[in-house]
């Protein structure tokens, strides 16, 4: 989970500020991940998502007839293509932002080499890596994304290579709430995989990002009791991951995009001296207040408000009557890792078939992360890929 009406635009502008600032930071260019060299077939498909035709891909074992047990991959938050490409707005090279991971492609290649079909797709209004109709995309709700996942499910069931009796939905982060909704509301889902699921209430989850990751990172760059524009530059070049660095966006004046004059956020800079004094102007409670404001109607986080958001997975415990696999990293910067344990225990108590894997040194993308502050959406590690494949084989393939 990361981190167009007027209030929502203001928060989105903060993200744009960091994208602009990142152009001034010199980093080596990373290379995009290459697909695993496994013997799979790939079929390009198109899926109608309301008024948009989404490009997708179905991968499955080569030289086999099928139909195959099939996994549908459901994205986390933000602009996401079918590979779930995550790029860094802080690291640029000659051809653009550095690619951090493309984990849906990695998952598809791995599972299709082990006897499964995998269907992945571009989110509605997304046409490529970082390419989308932004105005329309940012009007989507979680309910809209659930409708899209249902359309993808129907497309999968109609495909001759898909075993319609053995469809498993895989939800990552925000996508865990969509996958859980499908599993709870429909009888044609055979299994549910939850990667770093959203278990606690939405607002509590965002506050976790601030309290446990973002604010401690910001404090590393306070000098002589103040946070300045120089602090922002050093923070961007620091060792924090995407969640840690995203907190810097709240400290920049959003007017920078239109004026070109870089300054600290005037809402926080109450004495107008161009610096944020730690303990009075720069406090955890004041930053929490900015997040709180964005949950109001029209705010950037309004889609996660209590009256409009999908229930979190924690609210679905009593209605998940199918095999569930939970994969959670201990260094997760996006969701509280203890939530996955709470979910696993709750499902077990109601008699659900639940399997829980906890990886202490992996992050939100199930890639390597030494701490929550440095969790940076690294490529998914081999161990969770293998655990996933073995769980699927045990329950759905008979191999």
Characterise the protein shown here:
It is built from twelve helices and 14 strands. The radius of gyration is 21 Å and the shape is globular. Helix 4 (142-157) packs across helix 5 and helix 6 (202-219) packs antiparallel against helix 10. An eight-stranded mixed β-sheet has the order 1-2-6-3-9-10-13-14, sandwiched between helices. A two-stranded antiparallel sheet has the order 4-5. Strands 7-8 form a two-stranded antiparallel sheet. The protein is an alpha/beta fold and 399 residues long.
Task: Please give a quick description of this structure.
This protein is about 35% helix and about 20% strand. By secondary structure, the chain is α/β, with parallel strands linked by helices.
Rg computed from alpha carbons, rounded to a whole number of angstroms:
21 Å
Give the CATH superfamily of the largest domain: Alpha/Beta hydrolase fold, catalytic domain
Mean of pLDDT:
90
Q: Uncertain segments of ≥5 residues (pLDDT<50)?
A: 1-37
Layout of secondary structure:
Blueprint: H1 6-22, E1 40-49, E2 52-61, E3 68-74, E4 85-93, E5 96-102, H2 103-112, E6 117-121, E7 126-128, E8 131-132, H3 134-137, H4 142-157, E9 162-172, H5 174-185, E10 191-195, H6 202-219, E11 226-227, H7 229-236, H8 242-246, H9 256-259, E12 276-277, H10 284-293, E13 324-329, H11 338-349, E14 354-359, H12 382-397
Parallel strand pairs: 3-6, 3-9, 9-10, 10-13, 13-14
Antiparallel strand pairs: 1-2, 2-6, 4-5, 7-8, 11-12
Helix pairs in contact: 4-5, 6-10
């Amino acid at each position: 989970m990361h981190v167009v009406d007027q209030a929502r635009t203001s928060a989105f502008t903060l993200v744009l500020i960091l994208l602009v600032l990142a152009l001034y930071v010199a980093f080596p260019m990373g290379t995009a991940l290459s697909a695993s060299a496994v013997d799979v077939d790939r079929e390009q498909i198109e899926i109608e998502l309301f008024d948009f035709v989404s490009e997708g891909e179905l991968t499955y074992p080569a030289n086999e007839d099928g139909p195959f047990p099939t996994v549908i991959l459901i994205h986390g938050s933000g602009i996401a293509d079918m590979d779930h490409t995550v790029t860094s707005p802080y690291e640029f090279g000659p051809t653009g932002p550095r690619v951090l991971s493309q984990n849906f492609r990695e998952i598809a290649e791995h599972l299709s080499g082990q006897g499964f079909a995998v269907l992945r797709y571009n989110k509605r209004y997304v046409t490529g890596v970082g390419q989308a109709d932004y105005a329309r995309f940012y009007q989507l709700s979680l309910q809209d994304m659930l409708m899209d996942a249902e359309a993808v499910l129907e497309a999968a069931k109609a495909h001759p290579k898909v075993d319609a009796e053995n469809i498993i939905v895989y939800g990552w982060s925000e996508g865990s709430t969509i996958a859980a909704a499908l599993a709870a509301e429909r009888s044609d889902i055979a299994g549910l995989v939850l990667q770093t699921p959203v278990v606690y209430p939405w607002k509590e989850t965002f506050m976790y990002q601030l309290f446990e990751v973002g604010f401690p990172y910001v404090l590393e760059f306070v000098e002589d009791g103040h946070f300045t524009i120089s602090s922002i530059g050093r923070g961007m070049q620091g060792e924090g991951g995407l969640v840690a660095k995203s907190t810097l966006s709240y400290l920049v004046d959003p007017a920078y995009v239109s004026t070109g004059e870089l300054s600290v956020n005037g809402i926080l800079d109450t004495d107008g001296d161009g610096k944020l004094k730690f303990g009075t102007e720069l406090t955890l409670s004041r930053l929490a207040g900015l997040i709180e404001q964005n949950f109001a109607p029209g705010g950037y986080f309004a889609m996660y408000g209590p009256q409009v958001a999908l229930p979190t997975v924690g609210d679905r415990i009593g209605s998940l009557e199918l095999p569930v696999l939970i994969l959670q990293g201990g260094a997760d910067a996006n969701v509280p890792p203890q939530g996955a344990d709470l979910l696993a225990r709750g499902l077990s108590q109601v008699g659900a078939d639940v399997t829980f894997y906890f990886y202490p040194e992996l992050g939100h993308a199930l890639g390597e992360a030494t701490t929550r502050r440095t969790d940076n959406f690294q490529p998914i590690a081999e161990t969770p890929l293998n655990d996933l494949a073995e769980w699927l084989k045990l329950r759905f393939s008979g191999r």
